[in-house]
């Protein structure tokens, strides 16, 4: 597997971000981000994973192992989304009956 800069660019554009906004989201310099997107530099495993989480795609998509960007997991942090974090933590510890009721209610909402 090899990092695919064109998929990084496509993921950024799908989010409606320009390069400077993407760099800011990732807490890196615009120049550094641009090097990744142009393929001049290959990010480490940790950086690819971080980018994938922030862009809502999978690590495997950015490295060519998967054709679709849909991630297999989602990271929810208490700092960024405290209400959703609390809900997920509660669902992890509730009994199956309550869990199924919440899922059924969600399905009615969407």
Please provide the ordered H/E string of secondary-structure elements: HHHHHHH
What is the assigned CATH homologous superfamily of the largest domain?
A: lambda repressor-like DNA-binding domains
Our measurement of the CA-to-CA distance between the termini, rounded to an integer number of angstroms, reads 37 Å
User: How many β-strand stretches?
Assistant: 0
Structural notes for this entry:
By secondary structure, the protein is mostly helical. It has 2 domains: 5-62, lambda repressor-like DNA-binding domains (434 Repressor (Amino-terminal Domain)); 76-110, no CATH class. The chain is 61% helix and 0% strand. The protein has 7 helices and no strands. Helix 2 (19-25) crosses helix 3 (30-38). The chain is elongated and about 50 Å long. The termini are far apart.
Defining key terms:
single chain; 110 residues; mainly alpha; 434 Repressor (Amino-terminal Domain); 2 domains; 7 helices; 61% helix; elongated
Q: Which helices and strands appear, and what pairs or packs with what?
A:
Layout: H1 5-14, H2 19-25, H3 30-38, H4 45-55, H5 59-62, H6 82-93, H7 96-109
Helix pairs in contact: 2-3
In short:
With 110 residues, the protein is mainly alpha-helical. The chain is built from 7 helices and no strands.
């Amino acid at each position: 597997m090899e990092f695919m800069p064109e998929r990084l660019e496509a993921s950024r554009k799908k989010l409606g971000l320009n390069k400077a906004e993407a760099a800011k989201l990732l807490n890196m310099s615009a120049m550094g981000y641009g090097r990744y997107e142009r393929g001049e530099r290959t990010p480490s495993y940790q950086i690819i994973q971080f980018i994938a989480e922030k862009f809502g795609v999978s690590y495997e998509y950015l490295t060519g192992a998967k054709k679709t960007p849909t991630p297999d997991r989602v990271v929810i942090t208490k700092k960024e989304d405290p209400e959703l974090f609390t809900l997920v933590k509660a669902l992890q510890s509730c009994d199956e009956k309550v869990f199924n009721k919440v899922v059924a209610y969600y399905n009615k909402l969407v």
